[in-house]
Design brief:
The complex is a heterodimer of chains A (484) and B (694).
Chain A (H helix, E strand, L loop, with lengths): L9 H29 L5 E3 L5 E3 L3 H29 L6 H9 L1 H16 L5 H5 L4 H23 L21 E2 L11 E2 L10 H37 L1 H16 L2 H9 L1 H6 L1 H25 L3 H23 L20 H29 L3 H8 L4 H9 L4 H24 L11 H9 L7 H29 L2
Antiparallel strand pairs in A: 1-2, 3-4
Helix pairs in contact in A: 1-2, 2-3, 4-6, 6-7, 6-18, 7-8, 7-11, 7-13, 7-16, 7-18, 8-13, 9-13, 11-12, 11-13, 11-15, 13-16, 14-15, 16-17, 16-18, 17-18
Chain B lengths: L10 E11 L4 E12 L4 E5 L6 H9 L6 E10 L2 E2 L5 H7 L4 E4 L3 H4 L6 H12 L4 H14 L5 H5 L8 H13 L5 E5 L7 H18 L2 E6 L2 H7 L2 E6 L2 E7 H6 L4 H8 L52 E2 L7 E2 L27 E15 L9 E15 L3 E5 L6 H9 L6 E6 L2 E2 L10 H6 E4 L13 H11 L6 H14 L16 H12 L6 E5 L7 H18 L2 E6 L2 H7 L2 E6 L2 E7 H5 L5 H9 L7 E3 L34 H4 L4 E5 L2 E4 L4 H5 L5 E3 L3
Parallel strand pairs in B: 3-8, 3-9, 6-7, 7-8, 15-20, 15-21, 18-19, 19-20
Antiparallel strand pairs in B: 1-2, 1-4, 4-5, 9-10, 10-12, 11-12, 13-14, 13-16, 16-17, 21-22, 22-25, 23-26, 24-25
Helix pairs in contact in B: 4-5, 5-7, 7-8, 8-20, 14-15, 14-16, 15-16, 16-17
The chains are: A mainly alpha (484), B alpha/beta (694).
Amino acid sequence: MEPLTWTGTIGTFVNPIFSITAIAFGLAVVAQIVLSFFAPAVTLQANADGTLQQRGGAFGLAEKAVKLLLIANVALILVYLVGGILLPYGDAGIIGAISKRFLPVWIALILTFGVSITFKRRLGLYGKLFDSTVGMIGFALVMFWVFTAVLAGLFDLIATYDPLSQISGLKNKVPGFPVTDERKLGAVPHYLLGGDNLARDVFSRMVYGSTVVISIAPLATLVAFMVGITLGLPAGYFSGRLDTLLTFLSNLILAFPVILLFYLLVTPEIIQTGIPSYMAMILFIFPVVFFVVLLNARFYTQPSKRNPILIGVLAVLGYFYLSTISQPGTVVHFLPAWLDLFDIPGGILVVFVSVVFVNSPTVFRIVRGLTLDLRTRDYVAAAQTRGERPWYIMLWEILPNARGPLIVDFCLRIGYTTILLGTLGFFGLGLPPESPDWGSTINAGRRLLSTYIHPPLAPAGALLTLVLGLNLLADGLREESLKD
Amino acid sequence: MIDQDYDGPILEIDKLSISFFTRLREIPAVMDFSGKIMPGEALGLVGESGCGKSTVALGVMQDLGVNGRIVGGSIKFKGQELTTMSPDKLREIRGSQIAMIYQEPMASLNPAMKIGKQLAEVPMIHDGITEKEAMQRAFEVVTDVKLPDPKRMLNSYPHQLSGGQQQRIVIAMALMSKPALLILDEPTTALDVTVEAAVVELVKDLGKKYGTSMLFISHNLGLVLETCDRINVMYSGEAVERGSIEEVFDHMRHPYTQALFRSIPLPGADKNARPLIAIPGNFPLPHERPEGCNFGPRCDYFEAGRCDAGFIPMAQVEGNDRHQTRCLRFQEIDWKAPINVGEIKEKPEPGPVVLKMDNLKKYYEVAANALLGGGDKKVVKANETLSFEARESETLAIVGESGCGKSTFAKVLMGLETATDGQILLDNQSIGDVPIENRSTSNVADIQMVFQNPFDTLNPSMTVGRQIMRALEIFRIGKNDDARRQRMLELLDLVKLPRAFADRMPRQLSGGQKQRVGIARAFAGDARIVVADEPVSALDVSVQAAVTDLLMEIQREQKTTLLFISHDLSIVRYLSDRVMVMYLGHVVELGSTDQVFAPPYHPYTEALLSAVPIADTSVTKKHIVLEGDIPSAMNPPTGCPFQTRCRWKSQVAGNKCETEVPKQQIMAQRHQIKCHLGAEDFASMEPVITIAAE
């Protein structure tokens, strides 16, 4: 079996063209920048018939060239990707083979975008996202990893080998190295992105790593938001002493060095004392409180409607809450095994708790600030003058109108959390060492970086694109939510 | 450099068209606009919001942003074409030859720079003079805009000045380089009436002194009458009528101008005998303008097949060479025809006393150190001994400028704050010291409020119907959701909104429609007392009339007591039965509308009456300009609260005004004035507003 090259046979034709257009693009950008200093500004010219005309010039030409070359470059990249899907395995090189493995993700992305763009006028803020190029790019990047995580985690698609199994002879091998052992052959006969120092497939580990990241980061951020909102609203609305106290506490947490805090939380001695479990008890009660207060405020005038709703919500959320905090082997363990819905591995629970703990003060501050502004609005005064209770005003009059900045911050914060997870993995905190999550993988590859550069590059690229996607998505949402 | 000895028209706009380009379409903002300003002349640009008047100003400044573009026509400044001018040349003209004054003074000043430095920047950039000379000139100009203690002013930061002083600084900045053209975009909208009057006076004087031409943009016809020589009325992107002030005010030749004048409360209007006539329909959106005449669908004189046939050019009105109108039928319309009043409504008799205030006081304690609660405590007297009665189906107007305590009074009445002393009696039941949480549902539903800002009064993320239904839920009206929905639809009928609006979001409604929903919400629990806090001041003139009439009609039907808070005396005269004038927490005058609007006045009422611009050429006003600003409530003057600005102060013997708070003097039946002036002084007062006999 031959090792794979990066671009395979299509590369022989496309590579030269691609290098020419790429260089030309670079030159055009430089020309545009230089010309912008010297070329005369674009001005209007009045014609005799009363119409106006815009004058271009050399600057306009450079502008046009940049645009055309950019389109050409993107088209050539598409040739590599589409070529890989259409040509037989191996002809389009590593890039083509990876593109083919991601085929289900491509299909899912195209379907999502097709449906969303068709109905974008009916989809509110989500639909407006498809008016902004930046937002669409961000959304595509994020959804790429979400689909990858779902398809790999639930359906075992995309990945080529098991993320944990080793194949001898493939230790630290370069990308495209063939698998010689017939018995252990996976979906493709190569390690597409090479092997790591324990002879595991880097590509598959990257794909499975997305599952870990995508399942923890958004959920942890969501809980952090519940905590921040539940505390931030009353702090901003009532202000006074309560506000002073809560703001002081949040400053205290923010001032504490985050990494040291994590080291402390995962130390076995601290886990023995049960501090992480007690923290989980406190932090996870907030979502329950949030939903109960939310519904009670809305329906308390109609007890016949409120009681069944509240009982149902309390039962479901309460059960989840108890299942989450009750863990065998820790100090908080009271549910018998047959009643316990699920168990979260201790490491993940600690990671979850610490991420929520350090993120919620920032959310608290944002919510408090927004509340301080929104509570001066006339509709809040109108609610007060008709005798609404404070929690109704906070949750139904103020919170929905703070949603714009909060959604944007939510996207950004998932990005931070992802990096934080990476950092935790990098320090070997929390998650088990063989976990394929991106932070741990980068850390594992770091030790041999000077000799074998490829193992940490793939997860690093993945982390980069996901966080970049989240940031672009947040930018797009912010831009669109400000319009009209 | 542009020729300084130019003597043709300063600004000549010819067939100007400006469009904004959005993702979806091109939106024409100004179409076929022409105008000319001669040296020393002031041109008023009048129209409702969204009619394109500010866009014209920005077009002259060539500052239309990324999306805006001039798509046709020409703008000539001193004979030079501005539309094709290079950015460098434009920079030379802006700020030195053409200066602009915006609505929000604080937004025009750099908060991080001292006033003197900001002013000196202008001539240093444009004329290249040294900083010392520039500071000298700044000192002169600040003296010219009549600011007290110019030395100190130059050395202070913008936030240390009051709104009126800030606006004077902005005017000073505009005058620093002696511009040939001054553009004023609603320069006084953010200011109080008495301050507005002083600023307008100043602008007029300076215009004369410096010989500056002015483009004055306003929605207030009265202000334009006071400041301008010529007027240009705009509607939906087009100039519909232009001419000299007298021609347009007295011999208008466009149906829109006529409708506009009939919808504003002039001294002759009366809510029962001669009500305001609202312009039917809504302002067309820029991309939904009708074919032909833009005003066609709302016009009484509309003729199908002619008015909607195509483009309508400006036509010359005979008799005056600079009076033009964009109406095809102006020669056929009988402009002298009497107004069709419709049915004359019975004035409802005021019923029994519903609400009684007895020596109400509201003081706030402001601690110097908020965190630890220590330090000296300051007492702010927001309301001082308020006593009055309000009867069923009576309209009591509460008049005063910002900081006079009217909002605090509303808060205490609603129960959001409790009174420091005194009583509020609702049906002889004391509610003054009961906070809203402890009031009974019926008490809460009885007293409701209509808010000022239509864009703020509705929760933007809840449907209109849901918001009204929530009020019904909280007042425990209706057995189930269906009953409440039915009642909500009836309430929409009451405020004359289509029932389909129930499922709309507030952003889909216009300002006037939102205000109607606010009224419907206030009447959800059959309120008996409605506090209307400037309910129409943020609305356009033509919409104001409709909303005011709606309030009056509901009041007649439901026998509501209306407490109408306003600073606009024209509308107060039009709709209220009794008037209460407040200044710095004190009630300075209280009486029936006729009593308050005729002498004897409290000196403050007199100044207030004189400050309100009236859009009627037959009205002559006595000219009283108050010096200075309203004192801070944190640090009120000793004795009479008004003594620092009072022009009658010298008439009172001794130091009484400065040392002693005056007592209420009973002038006539139920008319009281809080002043030290003697009976002979009151008798010598002349009416402020006189209407010339026609």
